[in-house]
Specification:
two-stranded antiparallel sheet, alpha/beta, 8 helices, globular, 7-stranded mixed sheet, 24% helix, single chain, Rossmann fold
Length: 242
């Protein structure tokens, strides 16, 4: 996986985002993602693409016995160790594709806004299924296929500069999408809704919840936030290992 997050310019811009500065309560999807977590007391939790480690701290605060946060970015892991250290938490520089996924090792696996960087997402689903214990829970938040299929992941604007419509093209053609994000050229992977949901079902998971992220009411006063209701940006899924 190409790693933009160790690019100094990109990382500095990422650090300015509200979710970076303020944590989960500043993440627009958190009010929908939080209820998807199972009881975590005395459980083991694996975070794929942990970033600053906010979800690792959440799991530890819920009583998890052991939490492992993985991220390909050295800078992310260093920041996680500063902001979200804990005696139950271990952080490791490791890509999602490179992790060993030991069999029947974890009660819960979570991945937040990382899997849209993975080309072969079905292979990761297979590995997550293997590494979960029986009835283990997989919670993922991935950029919505309508968002990743957006042309340049940007609006078409009116002459006045207001968003007119959200263009979608080549939806049924999975693969790399070049975008410009936080001042850098970024490559993401587009996966269709069928690929994501059937990829889980075909690899032994039972779907327990599928949600398209909507901003919470308290964020609707933020400039530009109402435009988020005009196009889905994130897809949240809770899956159970059968």
């Amino acid at each position: 996986m190409h790693n933009e997050y160790d690019n100094e310019t990109f990382f500095k811009e990422y650090a300015k985002m509200s979710r970076s500065r303020e944590g989960l309560n500043a993440a627009g999807e958190w009010h929908q993602l939080k209820p998807l977590f199972p009881p975590l007391e005395e459980k083991s939790v694996l975070d794929l693409g942990c970033g600053y480690g906010w979800h690792c701290t959440f799991a530890a605060n819920q009583g998890a016995a052991y939490v492992l946060g993985l991220d390909l970015s050295q800078k992310m892991i260093e920041e996680a160790k500063k902001r979200n250290a804990g005696k139950q938490i271990e952080y490791r520089v490791c890509g999602i594709e490179e992790y060993e996924y030991p069999k029947n090792a974890w009660d819960c696996v979570v991945s937040n806004l990382a899997l849209h960087y993975i080309e072969n997402i079905e292979k990761i689903f297979q590995k997550v299924h293997r590494t979960l214990k029986q009835n283990g829970v997989f919670i993922l938040n991935i950029e919505h296929p309508v968002f990743t299929a957006g042309v340049g992941q940007d609006w078409i604007y009116t002459e006045a500069g207001t968003p007119q419509c959200w263009p979608v093209d080549d939806y049924f053609f999975p693969g790399a999408r070049k975008t410009h994000f936080l001042g850098c050229d970024v490559v993401k992977q587009h996966h269709t809704l069928t690929q994501i949901l059937m990829g889980l079902l075909d690899n032994g998971f039972a779907l327990k919840a599928v949600k398209e992220a909507e901003p919470p009411e308290e964020m609707m006063g933020i400039p530009g936030m109402k435009d988020e209701l005009r196009r889905p940006m994130m897809l949240l899924v809770k899956a159970l290992k059968k």
